[in-house]
Amino acid sequence: MSDTLLAILHMCVFPGGAFALMVAMFFKGLDRRVEARLQRRVGPPLVQPWLDIAKLLTKETLIPKTACRPAFLLAPVFGFTGMAVCAAFIPIAGVYNGLFNMGDLLVIFYLLPIPAMAIMLGGSASSSPYGAVGFSREMMLMFAYEMPLLMILLAVAMLTGKTLAGGAWGAEFSLFKIVALQQQTGSFGFNPSMIPAFLAYLIFLPGTMGVVPFDIPEAETEIVEGPLLEYGGPLLALFQITSALKTFVVLGLGVALFFPGTISEWWPINLLWFLCKCLALMLVSLTLVKSATGRFRIDQAFRFYVTVPAALALCSLILVWVM
């Protein structure tokens, strides 16, 4: 099988595409269910995300007369394509080594902002004033949480490079080598120098997923969904699918960076172990946070990200440098 065909298979079937979507939709349903129980509500069924998508696909697609039609239609496709490709780069220890084996950490860093950029593109093209407000908020929030993410990835790459080079200066951006090293030496999540980076990544997750307390760009009670206000039908369904795929990507990336260990020689067991770790990461960093906090203002969110997680990630960078 040619490399091109194999790459398409990974993007469309496993670990991206169909597999990532099924896992992410299950996680979405479980997230809503657990959040409801924490708030003493019954909550929706686990299949509710699938029911929402199915309902939207039966609706008519309406485009505002004053909207920029090409950009309005392209935005959800742009976001979905970026996440479908990004999901194929996530390695699963003992199961799948990733789409490519060199520099893929940098590729993921450039692909992860695509859903936020798609929301900004759609909001600005909708001609809605709420979309314009959501656009500006999304842009500010993205700039805030991308800085600590870059420092987290640099800390992991530097630690991997120095370890592989025997203590000499270096940085390794291959996720395959990062995972392989942790299989030999132990997970970075237990390394004292990487604990601040892991905490920073936990804080990064709710911001990049746009959930409470960082759902400012789509705040229903303030700007009535903001950039997504004018979307409906299949286009809104595509945005929701993109959000689900991004959930799989950021959780899988967190596992690959900090806890990629395996527990068996049998790949189905390792796959199940990977999903369990993703689920634990989601419950800690997304579900519990959503259930216990209220929404930040955009200035509070921006100031928070450029101070707390940025300081934690910088601390890991310094520790990796000096140790």
TrEMBL record:
It is a multi-pass membrane protein. The chain crosses the membrane at residues 6-27, 71-93, 105-127, 194-214, 235-259, 271-289, 301-322. It comes from the Bacteria. Keywords: Membrane, Transmembrane, Transmembrane helix. Pfam families: NADHdh. GO terms for cellular component: plasma membrane. It is found in: Membrane. This is NADH-quinone oxidoreductase subunit H. It comes from Desulfovibrio intestinalis.
